[in-house]
Amino acid sequence: MKGGLIISLLTACLVSVFTSCDTRARQEKLATTISSTNDKEMDELWGEGASHTEMITKDVSWYKYAKFGMFIHWGLYSDVAGEWNGEHYYGINEWIMKRAKVKTADYKKLAKTFNPVNFDADAITQLAVDAGMKYIIITTKHHDGFALFKSEVSDFNIVDATPYKKDPLKDLARACKEKGLKLGFYYSQTQDWTEKDAFGNTWEFNSEDADFDKYLREKAIPQIREIMTNYGDIACVWFDTPGPISREQVFAVKDVVEELQPNCLINSRIGHGLGDFTSLGDNEVPDKPLDGLWETPDTHNNTWAYSDLDFNWKTPREIINRLINVLAKGGNYTFNIGPKGDGSIPVRSVEILREVGKWTKANADAIYRAKPVYAGDQSNIAMTKNNDKVYVFVKEYPRDGKVWLPPFTGKLSGVSILSTGNPVLLKNSKIASYIDLNYADCGDIVPVIVLESDGDIVFDTNKILNSGIETVFYPHEAKLEGAELGVDRWMEIFGDWHTVSVIENWEKDGSKASWDVTVPEEGNYIVEIKYACTQESDMQEALFSVDDENFFFVPTFSGEIPMVKNQDEKRKMDVFKTRKLGIVKIDSGDHTLSIELNDDDKTGWIDLANLVIRPM
């Protein structure tokens, strides 16, 4: 579709076409950045890191309410399904033309047999409604250059080039309107592998001959004008991989959208901070609340477009918990499905989304119109609020049935399960309160507890140590001395992006990360860390401390290597491992937990993803 890594294929993609001296210089700068394999590469590719420079005057109320939407990646690549000339390409299938270096003439032949007779706009929109989604975004043109709509600009489109001869976007626009869904369009504005003047096709075209301004002027902008004109109200437009596009070129794209659809929201991947809402990195769920309008684009397995090679579907619980983690931090969750080449949706995807829909329907009051409540970064609960009700999402059922809450002010008038209405008990200990789920009929995969009050309930942000399930301490919560916050990003397989916040660059002996915690119940607790460690930092001594009580430990090599090379491509691989440090007794009360480097390390030591404390 972030990235401590860009493989050589992406490098070639980004530096392919600009012709002026200024744009050539930007290509060279970008190539240098990519070859250094640092974490800024995908920020630039995806248009992240640029501060927003425009005040939003558009109507954003629908977006704030929506919370959950459907993304659809579908095109000629869906027919290919992960295989080209007998070779399997694992990873994101919509990039198969690039990865297999398919010639334009050969790729265009796919259109001759593309006949998605099982495409059913009514079935797709009904699935979105059943899942609890409020909008749909579909790929109108991905990087392969094929238009999934009738275009007068290029005959490489579904109406003119395929036996299907119909415009599925018209049908989808109708079905969305009938079911009350907002419609959005994805359009790849810089990459087009069938055009010599666009980005990306370096195996056929000479970048010295390219004219990106011409491509924008003669194909991209005219096609954007078409999709903004021919399908009624368009709620949002989703651009992708702006790379080194100039600010002036971004304005040219933005202006045509807003001329034709003044209230159409534009995502951040238009580039240069000129979007209306931020699209995080692919599959990225943030650890902490974010300001402004933003979304997590996520996909059902490891690819965005359908592939026969990928059956790694996220389960209903995984999807629900990722949705919760996004909406409780203030964002929208845009969840992708990949129809097959014949237009049908994979059966497993349908079954799983319908299970998700049962949960969203039963817990709608806690999702849509509700606002996030920040009560510290409690690792097993998240909260939203709607008027005089606070909703507590219980991500995992604690083995002792106790859902601990941080201290709060306000008087509760009732505590119950949202989906069933069954009352539950709120009990108090000397230090904190907990919801007692023992013997409660929770009814859901992920139970939601309603706290009703006669006025405002205000929560402290104290971290509470769970007595019946693990407690995760995140990097952004830590007080740092001689260390820094960072982000590790890598592709597990091609296009399957992973993003992990870390504590890194531990400067010297004594560098420390500390977390304050309130412990409601004393006991013996298992201590674990999740980290990445190079060979150079293997066995460098450190301390885990509970207040002034120190425990020595050493991290060991996690398998981290600068570059993985297989038969097809190279990529950086961040390898995290979880290591049990030991067992400690922690008394009830307020404590400080810390990790401290106790060695004269010169390598920056480990990348620490989290500290985990779990009851024994």
Overview of this structure, please?
The longest helix is centred in the middle third of the chain and has 18 residues, at 212-229. The protein starts with 7 loop residues before the first helix and ends with a strand. Mean pLDDT is 91; it is low at 1-38. The chain has 616 residues and is α+β, with helices and mostly antiparallel strands. Helix 8 (121-131) packs parallel to helix 9, helix 8 (121-131) packs across helix 13 (347-362) and helix 10 packs parallel to helix 11. The strands form nine sheets. The chain has an eight-stranded parallel β-sheet. Strands 11-12-13-19-16 form a five-stranded antiparallel β-sheet, with helices on one face. The chain is built from 13 helices and 33 strands. It has three domains: 8-362, TIM Barrel; 371-459, Golgi alpha-mannosidase II (Immunoglobulin-like, Sandwich); 471-615, Galactose-binding domain-like (Jelly Rolls). The relative contact order is 0.12. Helix content is 21%, strand content 28%.
Keywords:
five-stranded antiparallel sheet, TIM Barrel, Jelly Rolls, Immunoglobulin-like, eight-stranded parallel sheet
